[in-house]
Amino acid sequence: MAIVGLYRFRTLSGGLAAHITQSLEGRERLRAMGYNANCLQPVMGQDVGSIATVINFASVKDWAAAVTRINADAGWRTWYAQAAGSGAAEQSEAALLADVDPAFQPPAPNTIGAVSSTQWLPMPGKAAQLMAHIQSSLAHLTRLGGRARVLQCTEGAHPMTIMVTLAFPSLEALGAHRDAMNSDANWQEYWAGVMANPSAQLVRSGIYTMVP
């Protein structure tokens, strides 16, 4: 079961160019240390105006060891101090998420171009129903061409929520998938049934592209 560390920074006024540069520098430092790290920039949703660095770990223990190692790295500390003092961005989120499917294998860096994501807070007493709804949805989502990943937030802004992501090689492929969903009779029937007896509240949605 993989663990995802999500670290989001909101761009401050006039700081976009510097923020992108700093994010990519940080990503490359993490990759040089052997970590599977990517930077995502939202193009739709409430996270627009931010950049998130997402890092995959094998377990919470590996995440903890990585935090210790990264924080002890002199080059990382120097880079981070310079980035934090530049005024280009400020941190707005730090979260840990765990794969629901213990057999899921995170994709390698640079193999994804775009991601759509929804995050759901189960209604009281309906956590099991939410998971059943999500599992039923995956057959439709993958049939129509998405690479699905289901994660549970264990720490962060929305603890105990379930995040469903769909990965695509490009933003164009994501758009084609969304068009297929909107015209697919089986998906529409499934979605109407779920909405007739909802099990969760949507707390976040967005479309993200990988910062190249």
Question: Can you describe this structure?
Answer:
With 212 residues, the protein is of the alpha+beta class. It folds into two domains: 94 residues, Alpha-Beta Plaits; 97 residues, Alpha-Beta Plaits (2-Layer Sandwich). Helix content is 39%, strand content 35%. The protein contains six helices and eight strands, in the order βαββααββαββααβ. The chain has an eight-stranded antiparallel beta barrel, surrounded by four helices. A hairpin with a 6-residue loop joins β6 and β7. α1 runs antiparallel to α3 and α4 runs antiparallel to α6. It is globular and about 55 Å long. The mean pLDDT is 95.
Characterize this entry briefly.
With 212 residues, the protein is α+β, with helices and mostly antiparallel strands. It has six helices and eight strands; from the N terminus they run βαββααββαββααβ. The chain folds into two domains: 3-96, Alpha-Beta Plaits; 114-210, 2-Layer Sandwich (Alpha-Beta Plaits), CATH 3.30.70.100.
Summary keywords:
2 domains, 212 residues, Alpha-Beta Plaits, 6 helices, alpha+beta, globular
Topology (elements, then pairings):
Blueprint: E1 3-11, H1 16-32, E2 36-45, E3 50-57, H2 60-72, H3 74-84, E4 89-99, E5 114-122, H4 127-143, E6 147-155, E7 162-168, H5 171-183, H6 185-196, E8 200-210
Antiparallel strand pairs: 1-3, 1-4, 2-3, 2-8, 4-6, 5-7, 5-8, 6-7
